[in-house]
Specification:
The protein is an all-beta fold and 384 residues long. The protein contains 1 helix and 24 strands.
């Protein structure tokens, strides 16, 4: 079983030289101007999809964190091979695991109760996640420690820019990338966002997170998908920074449909791009908004969660969860953002999660990164 999965752009965001991300202003509803607000010309011709039926009941603060803990930012979530349990990558009760000795990877049962956890000291910033057909848990550790984190916690060095494969019991089986170092495949990644393991075991990794805030191509704007063999052997990379079909500005989440098509949440460009598994561009969809997390279930229903839309970065569109058909591209349902005194993303109104996963009964889970944190469950009350 497989699928997908974001990143916190709320609260105080620490600037890093490797990432062109700006701090958000601490005033509700107002964000600092930063780069990357421009989008593809085609996007302007697509009317916002904000007024569709909502057949889901929203349950905030779903689940219980491990004893003695509170949930922090969660963007990495996925469903276990049992179809009902949920894996989450918690940023250790905060928005970073720097200086923390808790396990960031937690398995929850169908009632939201902790079953097991692992990964203490191995991961700085869990961002994306997949579960392969053998039940192995793949986790993206998106970034390395910034200057403030290193000054306070020197042990935070040597982590990030990696994809980690764990057994279902938490044994580290494989590391792709070089911990703590940004760079280019086959040996390095630059701020990887997500990982997807195809049914044949091929591994796809999406990077670079900060590219969505770049106005011109440069060293921090690499936007590509890299493909690896099941044993971790590098095969190829495709994609680059830009606005045209086949180009991307921060591929933020990955999903695959029953036909084996690779869906990419091209968040900076406010669209989904669809590729074959060799990187050939097949289609581009704008109707699902500025997407942070993607999931496609066994029935080819597509779940696209938007945590960032506002009048600067996606004019006219609201944050929320859009559900549609991965075969036809039709958007069927819209779940609006949560009420929140301070918005997620760069501004606008309300809050919505970044990670998304769906169990075999159609329950949808959103991983919240802030100011609302933890997990939200969307129960399909009015869907046959």
């Amino acid at each position: 079983m497989h699928n997908n999965k974001t990143l916190n752009h709320t609260g105080q965001r620490l600037l890093r030289t490797a990432v062109a991300c700006a701090l958000l202003v601490a005033v509700p509803g107002i964000a600092l101007a930063q780069g990357g607000a421009r989008g593809p010309a085609e996007h302007a011709n697509v009317p916002p999809v904000n007024n569709l039926p909502n057949p889901y009941e929203t349950v905030r603060n779903w689940s219980t964190p491990p004893e003695g803990r509170t949930w922090g930012s969660i963007s990495a979530i996925n469903i276990d091979i049992d179809g009902t349990s949920l894996w989450v990558g918690d940023r250790c009760g905060a928005n970073s695991c720097a200086g923390s000795d808790v396990d960031p990877i937690v398995k929850l049962d169908s009632e939201g109760r902790p079953v097991m956890s692992f990964g203490a000291g191995l991961i700085l910033w869990p961002h994306g996640m997949d579960v392969d057909r053998q039940g192995n848990v793949w986790v993206v550790d998106a970034r390395s420690a910034n200057a403030a984190e290193l000054a306070a916690n020197p042990d935070a060095a040597g982590k990030g820019h990696t994809v980690l494969k764990f057994s279902p019991q938490g044994e580290l089986l494989m590391t792709l990338g070089t911990p703590g170092e940004a760079g280019d495949p086959p040996t390095h990644f630059t701020e990887p966002n997500d990982v997807l393991v195809a049914p044949d075991g091929s591994i796809f990794v999406a990077e670079t997170h900060g590219a969505q805030f770049q106005d011109e191509p440069g060293p921090n704007s690499k936007s590509r998908i890299s493909k690896f063999a099941p044993d971790g052997t590098f095969i190829k990379s495709f994609g680059e920074w830009g606005f045209e079909d086949g180009q991307m500005r921060s591929p933020h989440s990955l999903a695959m449909d029953s036909q084996g098509r690779l869906f990419v949440a091209d968040r900076g460009n406010r669209r989904i791009q669809i590729f074959d598994q060799e990187g050939g561009h097949l289609d581009t969809w704008y109707q699902f908004s500025r997407i942070s997390g993607l999931y496609i279930d066994a029935n080819d229903m597509l779940y696209a969660i938007d945590s960032e839309s506002d009048e600067n970065y996606n004019p006219g569109w609201r944050k929320g969860l859009r559900v549609g058909n991965a075969k036809t591209g039709e958007v069927l349902y819209y779940v609006p953002e949560h009420n929140s005194a301070r918005p997620t993303g760069m501004g606008g109104i309300g809050a919505m999660g970044e990670g998304v996963a769906v169990d075999r009964d159609g329950n949808v889970y959103g991983g919240e990164v802030g100011p609302v944190q933890g997990l939200t469950k969307f129960i399909p009350r009015l869907i046959d």
